[in-house]
Amino acid sequence: MLNGKKSVLVINGPNLNLLGTREPQIYGHETLADVEASGKKQAESLNAAIDFMQSNWEGAIIDRIHAARTDGTDGIVINPGGFTHTSVAIRDALLGVEIPFVELHVSNVHSREPWRHHSYFSDKAKAIIVG
Ligand SMILES: O=C1C[C@@](O)(C(=O)O)C[C@@H](O)[C@@H]1O
Q: Active site located where (predicted)?
């Protein structure tokens, strides 16, 4: 809780800073700023606090997750980008802080290359949003 409000942390991993220009046929035309603005609006309508971070660095994402343990974060929404399919370390960070998380992907990873079907997060996520 943050100032009496439920608090959500939204983490976007590598290459998601390029949303809007990156392979728009897969990821669409909305920028990360657009996505964050609509998340902010949604949080306001729910009287919740929201914070956003994006990084292309695995360690920076892990450090932010660790900080969430003591900054009042109640839940995390994470799009780990390419780290979805590789990162035991980000998985361990999420499990280590014991904050419930939702896994989110802009594209439907299950309709793409077979190696995108495996996620290090899905079995521990409270919910999964794809596509
Ligand atoms: O970077 C990304 C974005 C992604 O997480 C998505 O949002 O659809 C899917 C991943 O496979 C990919 O590496």
A: 27, 105
Longest dimension (CA), the chain: 44
Q: Where are the domains of the chain?
A: 7-130
pLDDT in tens, the chain (131 residues): 988 999 999 999 999 999 999 999 999 999 999 999 999 999 999 999 999 999 999 999 999 999 999 999 999 999 999 999 999 999 999 999 999 999 999 999 999 999 999 999 999 999 999 99
Domain 7-130: give its CATH architecture: 3-Layer(aba) Sandwich (3.40)
Index of the ligand 1 atom closest to the CA of residue 82: 13
Annotated binding residue 107 = yes
- pTM over the 0.95 mark: yes
Q: Is residue 116 in contact with ligand 1, taking CB distance under 6 Å?
A: yes
Name the E strands within 26-95.
49-54, 75-79
Phi and psi at residue 66, in whole multiples of 5°?
-60, -40
Q: Tell whether ipTM is more than 0.85.
A: yes
Ligand 1 lined by 84 (C-beta under 6 Å): yes
